[in-house]
Design goal:
Blueprint (H helix, E strand, L loop, with lengths): L1 H20 L17 H6 L2 E5 L7 E4 L2 E4 L3 E2 L2 E6 L3 E6 L2 E6 L12 H8 L3
Antiparallel strand pairs: 1-2, 2-3, 4-5, 5-6, 6-7
Length: about 120
C-alpha cells in the first residue's frame, strides 16, 4: 500500500511538469512572428492558404495578402493555383510556392488492390 501511495504522489509531481513542457501546436513558427528580425522577408515568400470557391476565381493567401488568380503580387503575377501550390510568374521567371514545403505527395498502391484488379472475370 505504501508503494502505491509513493507512486501516485510521484505521478502528481511529475505530470504537471511534463504538461508545462508542451507547446501550443497552433502557434506559428518563431520565424513568422512579428518580432522576428526577418519576419517581413520570410512572410513574403510563404503560401499560407488556398481558397478555391465553387464560383469565382481561386484565392491564395501569400504573406498575409489575398491574391486572386491573375492578380499581381509585387512584380509577380499569380498564374496557377492548386490545392497545394501557387505558381507566380515575374521578371525572374517562374516561382512555385508550396502550402506544405518539404512534403511530397505520392500515391500508395497496396498489393491487395493490385491483385483484386487483376482477378476480374
Amino acid at each position: 500500500m505504501n508503494r502505491l501511495i509513493v507512486l501516485l504522489t510521484s505521478l502528481l509531481v511529475v505530470l504537471p511538469v511534463r504538461a508545462q513542457a508542451l507547446s501550443d501546436p497552433t502557434r506559428p513558427p518563431p520565424a513568422l512572428s512579428a518580432d522576428a528580425p526577418d519576419a517581413e522577408v520570410m512572410n513574403s515568400q510563404v503560401l499560407q492558404s488556398v481558397m478555391i470557391p465553387e464560383q469565382g476565381k481561386p484565392i491564395a493567401l501569400i504573406g498575409g495578402q489575398q491574391i486572386r488568380l491573375g492578380q499581381k503580387y509585387g512584380e509577380r503575377r499569380l498564374i496557377k493555383l492548386t490545392e497545394w501550390e501557387a505558381v507566380l510568374e515575374g521578371p525572374a521567371g517562374i516561382e512555385r510556392l508550396f502550402l506544405t514545403p518539404g512534403i511530397e505527395k505520392t500515391r500508395v498502391t497496396t498489393p491487395a488492390a493490385k491483385a483484386q484488379s487483376g482477378n476480374k472475370p
